[in-house]
Write a structure and sequence with these properties.
The structure holds 2 protein chains of 2 kinds. Chain A is built from no helices and 11 strands. By secondary structure, chain A is mainly beta. In chain A, a hairpin with a 2-residue loop joins β7 (67-73) and β8 (76-81). The mean pLDDT of chain A is 93. Chain B is built from no helices and 11 strands. In chain B, the strands form 2 sheets. In chain B, strands 2, 4, 5, 9, 10 and 11 form a 6-stranded mixed sheet that branches. In chain B, β6 (55-58) and β7 form a beta hairpin. The chains are: A mainly beta, B mainly beta. The A-B interface holds A 1, 4, 6, 32, 34, 41-44, 46, 49, 91, 93, 95, 97, 100-107, 109 and B 30-31, 33, 35, 40-45, 48, 50, 88, 90, 92, 97-99, 101-104, 106.
Chain lengths: 113, 111
Amino acid sequence: GAVVSQHPSWVICKSGTSVKIECRSLDFQATTMFWYRQFPKQSLMLMATSNEGSKATYEQGVEKDKFLINHASLTLSTLTVTSAHPEDSSFYICSANKVETQYFGPGTRLLVL
Amino acid sequence: TQLLEQSPQFLSIQEGENLTVYCNSSSVFSSLQWYRQEPGEGPVLLVTVVTGGEVKKLKRLTFQFGDARKDSSLHITAAQPGDTGLYLCAGAQGGSEKLVFGKGTKLTVNP
């Protein structure tokens, strides 16, 4: 298998602030990582593909200026939710690709007050 | 239009019963993965299938990839309360690393 970590596991912030979430592949290198969002009782929704050393590719309807992604190394991708609002509250999950399989992090619960 | 149709969406059964979850599509996938997710956690990989007709077994779980690589099934024998969770199928197409997810099957196994 492969291990992917996320930090923090949960965060509460005030409306208007920015929040950074880290995703790390602990025992392998990943040129590609993915960021998902999951609403209660629903499946995962892909937000963007994070590419090491280049710009992220965003899915249709996802604001790239709102959700900033940086993939500066082969083991770390970050997602920054800028000027967060209550509607951004959700469960954010990252994954990293290893040999045709995506391995997921444990998720980050974001609550914006 | 959902690319991967997963059914049933909800399933509540008694301990010891058998069940099958289906994942169907009109599209061909180069690989298909099954995950299990518990509340507040990330999905955990159960299996990856890549060959048409492939059957993989993981203890009481049997996974099958259709011959045409358009569908897959997960069969659980003698379900236990510990099998409770959200089961997700996800497929990769062509050379893309992106996964297309089904809507998930929420399984509850009652003792």
